[in-house]
Specification:
Number of strands: 28
Number of domains: 3
CATH class of the largest domain: Alpha Beta
Helix content: 25-40%
Largest sheet: 10 strands, mixed
Distance between the termini: 37 Å
CATH superfamily of the largest domain: Vaccinia Virus protein VP39
Length: 570
Amino acid sequence: MSKQSEIEKLKGEIERLKKELKKRKKYGLVWEEKPEEVVEMCKEKLPVLKEVKNKEIITNKNKPVNLLIEGDNYHSLSVLNYTHPKSIDVIYIDPPYNTGNKDFIFNDKYVDPEDAYRHSKWLAFMEKRLRLAKNLLKDTGVIFISIDDNEVAQLKLLMDNPDLFGEDNFVAIFPRKSGVAPRIDAKHVSVEHDYVICYARKFNSLDLNKIYTAENGGYKLEDEFVKTRGKYKLNKLDRGSIHYSESLVYPIKASDGSLVWPGGSKRRKNWTWRWSKEKVNWGIKNKFIVFKKTKNGWSVYFKQYQYVDNEGNPIERQIPFKSFILNFPNEQGNKELENIFQKRIFDYPKPTGLMKYLINLHRNKNAIVLDFMAGTGTTGQAVLELNKEDEGNRQFILCTNNENNICTDVCYPRIKKVIEGYKNLKDEKIEGLGGNLKYFKTEFVDAEPSDKNKIKLTKQATEMLCVKEGTFEKVIDNERFKIFKNSGHYTGIIWDQLAIPVFKKAIKDIKGRFSVYVFSLGDEDFSEEFADLNKKRSEAKSRTERSSGARIQLSPIPEAILRVYRRIFK
């Protein structure tokens, strides 16, 4: 190719790129994509779960089983994309703030403040995990993310991306007072706050808790309407107004027949009533208006009730929580850990009170709460405390790596102590909150889709399937199939298709719903093999009308798992 031809080809490519750029949106967040080793690894190795049996804690089989997963959070989230799609109510994470002070590791190296790609690396890290996390949230779910000034602007734009959460699902930014004393070493301003960013999975499906107006104070007076309207407080009906309107300037007849003007009997300039003449007449008739005698004449007030608006219409007896968080500084988190371990072992963990405040914003007392950057395990303790306080049955899933032994030496021991009890700094016995915990590690199977690897993945998937179904109690365990249960729900795993008749015979007289996974090198259905059992279920339903759906839900493995992994690792 001649030099002139190369130049023409290059010009053509430049013009093509110009046209392509014009098509793209001009508003948004752009960063340099940086490959991440733990992500690239999933092209060759597929993550699975392996239970650490000696770390199981069971205090009440009737309570939910909480999960602690040790491993990189990208791998943990990948597994959860199979086991918990659209199943999580609340996600909270406390990611690295990317301060440059050895708080953020990318590809096994700390990212320092001089790194030209510091923000790009952080955004690449967060985007991949948030994309996986979004798949886990229910439509009614919510995510809370702690952050500070280093990345708050970038995180907000990242979350606003319509391919991630989208700005229509933005709920609030909660400023939080993080410090209790001024930083005297600050160069210009002592920054004593950080933030919690909140997004809904679907904004219009989210239903957050509210607080009672009675807790808001000020409602101290009572009248004959207290049972229907609640207590009330008085507000002046007139005002010196920048919203002056001639229609709101008129006299009101007091109880002694004298006329009262806004601003007093002398009719002060630019003062108006807050209500129209028609509304005042309605208010007098319905006893919303109060006249008080003064030395200069009369003052006019209206009653603001707790439970009805100023037109007598019933209103919500609750108001939304406020966005400012003032009561949970980091020092509380320090003291909590010191009390549990009787020494200082970690600097500035988030306080349990903050976690409880955020989790309690979600109405569901049976919520599944995920923290995939769990660190010291504050979220787990918060869930256990909330359940104790309001008799809820929330379940937590904690995911953390074991960097500096934070999982084995801090997170797990903390949860164990909170469940079973411990002695605090004063050597006082703190009663355990009770609860159940299963401890897992992420392990890996070769991704090459050979028959050998499919067999290996199927053998390694037992724990994943039990986590997916919430069935951990063994019923039958042999080389050809296994059965686990939880209340009236059973999970069957069949390694050998020739064992299907034996398996069916084993479950024929067991009452309950079955999720059955059958090994297959392809994507076989197996519905014909179980048609007779599901037919009996259907006939029983028509007779009793007490149950719905097939008794046996079938899935081929490992194809059911591989289907998810192909989607998220593409």
